[in-house]
Amino acid sequence: MKKHVFRIGMALMLCMMVMSMGVMAQAKWQPRRPINLIVPWGPGGASDLTARIVAAEMEKPLGQRIIITNTPGGSGAIGTKEMFDLPHDGYTWSGNANGSIVTYQVLEFLDISHRDYANFFAMFTPNVICVPANSPYQDLPALIQAMKTGRVTVSSAGTGSGGHQAAEFFKKYAGVDYVHVPYQGGVYAVTATVSGEVDCVMQLSMEVVEMLRAKQLKALAVMDNKPLEVEGVGAIPPITNWIADFPSVGSYFGLFLPKDIPADALAAITAAFEVACNSDTVKNFATEKGSVAVCIYGEEAEAINEQAASLICWMLYDGGFANIEPSQFGIPRP
Amino acid sequence: MRRADTISGILVMAVAAFFGIMALRMPWRASQWGITAAPGLVPLVLATALLLCGLVLVTRAKTGDAHYKRMEALNQQAPTCDDEAGDAAEPESTSEGRVLTETQRVLLTVGLAVAYILLLGRIHYAVATALYIFASIAVFQGKGYGKAAIVAVVSSAVVWFVFTKVFFVFLP
Amino acid sequence: MSLSVFFSEFFRLLTPTTLFNSLWATAFGIIVGMLPGLQATMGVALITGLTFRFPAEQVVVILISVYVGAIYGGSRSAILLNIPGTAANAATCLDGNPLARKGQAGYAIGLATTASAVGTFIGLLTLGIVSPLLGKIALSFKSWEFFTLAIFGIVICGNLTAPKDPLKGWVAGLFGLLLSQIGRDPIHAYPRFTFGTVALSGGLSLIPVLVGTYGVSEIIGVMKMPKAYTVRTKVDRVLPRMADFVRYWKTIIRSGIIGVIVGAIPGVGEDTAAWISYDVAKRSSKNPDEFGRGSYDGLIAAETGNNACIGGAIIPVLTLAVPGSAPAAVLLAAMWLHGIRPGPLLPIEQPMFIGTVTAIFMLATIFMAILGLSWVRPLVKVLQVPRTILMPIVLVLCTVGAYAINGRLFDIYLTVLFGVIGFFMRSNDFPAAPLVLGFILGPMADDNLRRALVISGGSLAPFFARPICQVLWALTLLVIISRTPLPRMIRNMFKRRAEA
User: Fold this and answer.
1) Which of C188, C323, C455 lies closest to A198 in CB terms?
2) Same domain, A90 and A231
């Protein structure tokens, strides 16, 4: 009798060991408590909406709730700092745009470099040059001609914001000047153009798409090298039709985590991110908002950031908006 | 009120001077828009206005007899609602076992609050909250510690539960 | 939008699910609004997160019900505790609390409820009928108009709650204005008064300043008194007498209109609407001295104004996709998330939607009135909880409110700091309201002034040439002049002539 018990016991133990090894081999990082997704912008903006949609689709693969907290201020610096101050354990994320995070260091908002993030890009929105529907400038050459006087007003979401960056690029590559009129957010910059308070706006496609559909704004060009198809508006011509060497100017929206989170957490989050990007919800959101759904992370994303940092930071420094030379942070000239 | 006004007036002037001096140290001509868009313009205007108000306050406290006479008259002819509360209310003297002066009460209230917010983020939210509520009731009542403890634990548990489990809001 | 659309939508909404959702959402809103420290914006935001998977139309029903409930609910704590439940109810404290201390807590609540219901109704009426028109007017508010409006709001500071001593009101207002300048300036992003910290570079948040100055300072004030007071809590009458209410019909209409217009202006919200309504009511009243001592007129003005503002705030949301107030911003975000596309295309793509929203409003108003009037007696019992127990709990809620919306411990420190500042101000007869109002209006003034100058190339001419600006300047001048001895002199002149 005792021998049988002993043998059964050994067999059971062996089974358990084999099973647990199998389980360990498949062991995935499962978040044990809700995840805190800090959006360092106000509710309803492009970063906020993208983060919410992507997070909603990531909840199921991760098996845990993702809770959004809006912590606006300092062009996204404050919320970003909150994320970095909390433990880097994979439970705290942020939702932002790469066009913003590359500027924080050189604009002296934070001393966190774009190289400190694990990036997950879900959406690419190029900048679009728009004028009010009844503007005297109905195509790009007319606008360029008018801007040669240097008196055309261009609104943006604030100094250093995506719309401002786009305007500076335009100034450099079209060889013109303009009067920059900053507002407290993309929504207000766009509304100001619709009302005619300013002559032109170069914000992201996500922010202007509704006004374009309503025929309150007219899109003159998209800052990319291929036309942008927007449902309900048609194809917006690429700026390279007129200025051949214009770089692609836009922002990648998505999730930004501290780079040094545990490896298994990173793997699980990446897998969940892929699932989210392939979902219909995210793809429909992109088309609705005149953007392009992408799924870029890891080295590919970092390469994009390096390019963006070079372009944007040096442009800000040359324009006198940044006081520190970007080479001090190891950012080479483009 | 006159002496209090003199002190307040001086304080107001100090605050105004502080903001004003910091505003003057901001760049004034450094941008493409010229002086009208200088970051220090509006703060300087505001600080100057505040300084003037502070000055008037101090001057009036020293020499404005007419003003204070008018205040006295107004206060007497139309009693404030605090006085009315004095008539209509019944002072509750039984449940509070401790008798403290007003200054002590203010210091205790603020001190307890400061201790609480410093604990937040360092120890678990529900624990800190329960400690604070218990301490606050105990200090001001001086008796009934058992009931105080129950109230403290129950209310902090409810707040914690409702916000973290029902609404998924992160608490400090 | 024609009346038939409104009625058809309203009856379509009378399904058990919708009614149930509106009921619990309104109740939730009232509770959130009532708890000091928790704001309407937070209530709407919390529910947006919870209802992410609900069908779109139900989400709109729920969110609007929460919004209406919260703005009304704040009047409870304003009346009972002298702590406004939300920013919008700060003006309600002034007359609501004195009424409670006089033993008329129940009646005050009844008045506030009715006023809020009527105000919401005026708001929804305007929303339904003149949305497109008001949307256009809102669009014509540009930087110049915003600046002039901010100046008008600031000038009112001298009058608010410091009728005896406008100088102290001005000091509080200027202090609030200076505090609003902390942070990065809107044109250059140059850090002002930040001492190099990241925490201050975003400026001070409104919620901590508001909750601290009103809530925490009141807590300190209550605890300071050597003897606790209990207020007579006999609740004999809740439903306001028709006569009492109808007597102030002018105030009601006026406050309703002011509330809607202020709401329609993007970025200016319920708190400003309540204050302007209150101030105008006081000016036009035959008994201005009663204001601040328990005037029904003042209470009605404040509550009608802030609720009418809700309807107004939704107008730019629907017609321009621009929020008219902070809770409206969350509502807008929620709509986008659920595939509703507010904005200039709405009349074309979803023409019935404005009618639906108006009908939802109606539903929420009805529930608000029912719940509000039936919940009086149990809630007045709150006053009987000994202050030693009630005050610490209120402080805890204040800190939760300050933290939950932005998630920063720094905000909680600010709340207590402003509690202390507010307490000392009040002890020396400096009113708290102008501080908060200055803080809210400061960015509007600074931002728009400098931007307008950038656009006009440094010229001040447009400020005086544009029609809306001219109207606002005229009103501002009127307010300033009424504070000087001039009106008295003119009146005395006429009196002498009449006697002669």
Assistant:
1) C455
2) no
Q: Are residues A80 and A150 in the same domain?
A: no
Asked if A34's CB is within 8 angstroms of B169's CB, the reply is no
The pLDDT of residue A37: 93
**Is B129's CB within 8 Å of C429's CB?**
no
Q: Assess B41–C contact: CB distance below 8 Å, yes or no.
A: yes
Check B92 against C102: CB less than 8 A apart.
no
- Enumerate the residues of chain C whose CB falls inside 8 A of the CB of residue A159: 187-189
Whether the pLDDT of residue B82 is over 50: the answer is no
Strand order in the sheet with A92-97: A66-70, A35-39, A92-97, A250-258, A117-126, A292-297
Residue A38 β-bridge partners: A69, A94
Given an 8 Å threshold on Cβ–Cβ distance, is A65 in contact with B168? Answer: yes
Please check the confidence at residue A184 and state whether its pLDDT lies above 90: no
Hey, are the CB atoms on A65 and B170 less than 8 Å from each other? no
Domain co-membership, B107 together with B61: no
- Choose among B12, B34, B42: nearest Cβ to C446: B42
pLDDT band at A11; cut points 50, 70, 90:
low
Q: Which residue has the higher pLDDT, A225 or C337?
A: A225
Give dist(CA C275, CA C156) in Å, integer. Answer: 9
Its ipTM equals: 0.86
Best to test chain C binding among A50, A71, A106, A112 (most C CBs inside 10 Å): A71
The CATH number linked to A222 is: 3.40.190.10
**In this predicted structure, which of A84-98, B26-40, C61-75, C123-137 has the lowest mean pLDDT?**
B26-40
Query: Contacts of residue C429 in chain B, CB cutoff 8 Å?
Result: 1
Residue B141 belongs to domain spanning: 102-166
Contact C178 B50 (CB under 8 A): yes
Residue A39 has pLDDT above 70, yes or no: yes
Q: Chains touching chain C at 3 or more Cβ pairs under 8 angstroms?
A: A, B
CB contact under 8 A, B116 and C101: no
Give the nearest chain A residue to B33 (CA atoms). A179
Residues C201, A74: C-beta atoms closer than 8 Å = yes
Q: Would you call B168 and A69 a contact, using CB atoms and an 8 Å cutoff?
A: no
Helix (H) or strand (E) holding A97: strand A92-97
Residue-wise over C119-143: b if at least 16 C-beta within 10 A, else e?
A: bbbbbbbbbbbbbeebbeebbebbb
**Among the residues of chain A, which ranges form H helices?**
2-26, 46-62, 77-85, 98-101, 140-147, 162-174, 186-194, 205-213, 263-277, 280-288, 298-318
H-only helix segments in chain B: 2-24, 41-63, 65-77, 81-88, 102-119, 125-141, 145-160
How many domains are contained in chain C? 1
Domain, as residue range, for C392: 3-465
Number of domains within chain A: 2
Q: Which of residues 114-173 of A touch B (CB under 8 A)?
A: none
Q: Cβ contacts (< 8 Å) between B125 and chain C: which residues?
A: none
The mean-pLDDT minimum among B163-167, C16-20, C80-84 falls in B163-167
pLDDT tier for residue B87 given thresholds of 50, 70 and 90: very low
Dump pLDDT digits (tens) for A56-84.
999 989 988 898 888 887 788 888 998 99
Q: Which of A95-104, B121-130, C11-20, C231-240 has the lowest mean pLDDT?
A: C231-240
Residue C319 counted as domain residue: yes
pTM score, whole prediction: 0.82
How many domains would you assign to chain B? Answer: 2
Same domain, A170 and A311: no
Chain B contact for A310, CB < 8 A? no
Kindly state whether residue B94 falls inside one of the protein's structural domains: no
Select from C468, C299, C404, C296 the least CA-distant residue to C35. C404
> In Å, how far from its chain's centre is CA B68?
26
Last residue of a domain, one of A194, A218, A241: A241
The alpha carbon of residue A208 is apart from the nearest alpha carbon of chain B, in Å, by 27
**High-pLDDT (> 90) share of chain B, %:** 26
Average pLDDT on A257-264 reads 92
Torsion angle, alpha carbons of B2, B4, B6, B11, to 10: -160
